[in-house]
Design brief:
Length: 293
């Protein structure tokens, strides 16, 4: 079970990396996440059931997520719709898109090939195929993100999030940066959805409900545990935060609590993590006052 949780942590960590691109760099929450995540799985699973190879199907899922992010970006920058509302509009519309693609609310991969099947010949122990798949995917995504963020274009993207007015004053097209950021982040999020759908063995239009909480938990847990770190270490911390989150969920399950209410446990974990920095500040302030006395 622990190995399975670690594997799940890697796959959900990809979601955290995608959310990080908007939530922490551009400083706004993108609700498209709850639509692009199941969309990636829906497109991937539908493609596989129609004879497309799992790798190509996964890439198609990524492209679908990028399209969703692009639409949100255009509504936000060109339509002047607030980003949260734009994300909600796209998220809602994607339910119909997924129904059109799958022709059913859920679609099974029973007796269909999956991307993790490529590791079958390695004779790995149970669940280690998911750990290996997740690790490979994480390494590729982190490497691509580092390459992107250390280019001039990537630095312009970061500058847009740091200080939009300053970025605009030096000639950066901030609207373009936002559209590109939303497009890329939702592509990464859709990758997570596609891989998790293959791991679970099915796609479902309801899989996106609450996933933004899971992604945020990965980010917040990583930040709480590791504090001030370099950019590379921050990306790694998000993945480690995702693994820790999955292990916490495993503990909840092992404790015999009803998994029907797993979403509220997820929300409580995230709320506690968000409160920890404030509690630390209060504790340090109290300690400082006591020393002065």
């Amino acid at each position: 079970m622990v190995i399975s949780a670690i594997g799940q942590g890697f796959l959900w960590g990809i979601l955290g990396l995608g959310i990080f691109m908007t939530y922490r760099i551009l400083n706004f929450p993108d609700m498209t996440t709850e639509g692009s995540f199941p969309l990636g799985g829906a497109v991937c699973v539908t493609a596989i059931t129609n004879g497309v190879s799992p790798i190509l199907a996964t890439l198609l899922g990524i492209v679908a997520g990028m399209c969703a992010g692009f639409v949100t970006g255009m509504l936000y920058t060109k339509g002047k719709i607030p980003v949260i509302l734009a994300g909600i509009l796209v998220m809602s519309g994607l339910n119909s898109v997924m129904l059109f693609i799958m022709q059913t609310p859920n679609l099974s991969l029973l007796k269909q090939p999956k991307i993790q099947d490529f590791f079958t010949n390695l004779n790995l122990p149970d669940h280690f195929d998911i750990v290996l798949l997740g690790l490979i995917a994480i390494v590729i995504i982190v490497a691509l993100l580092l390459f992107f963020f250390f280019t001039d274009f990537g630095q312009a993207y970061i500058a847009t999030g740091d200080n939009e007015n300053m970025a605009r004053s030096i000639g950066i097209n901030t609207d373009r940066m936002k559209v590109i950021g939303l497009t890329l982040s939702n592509g990464v999020i859709a990758l997570s959805g596609a891989l998790i759908a293959q791991n679970d063995g099915y796609a479902d239009i309801g899989k996106g409900v609450g996933v933004i909480v899971i992604g945020l938990a990965s980010i917040i847990i990583g930040e709480v545990l590791y504090g001030e770190v370099t950019f590379v270490e921050r990306l790694i911390a998000i993945v480690l935060g995702s693994i820790i989150y999955q292990l916490l969920i495993l503990i909840i399950i092992k404790a015999g609590l009803d998994t029907t209410y797993l979403k509220i446990f997820s929300s409580i974990i995230l709320a506690l993590c968000l409160m920890i920095p404030r509690l630390k500040e209060a504790l340090n302030l109290k300690t400082g006052l006591e020393k002065e006395e």
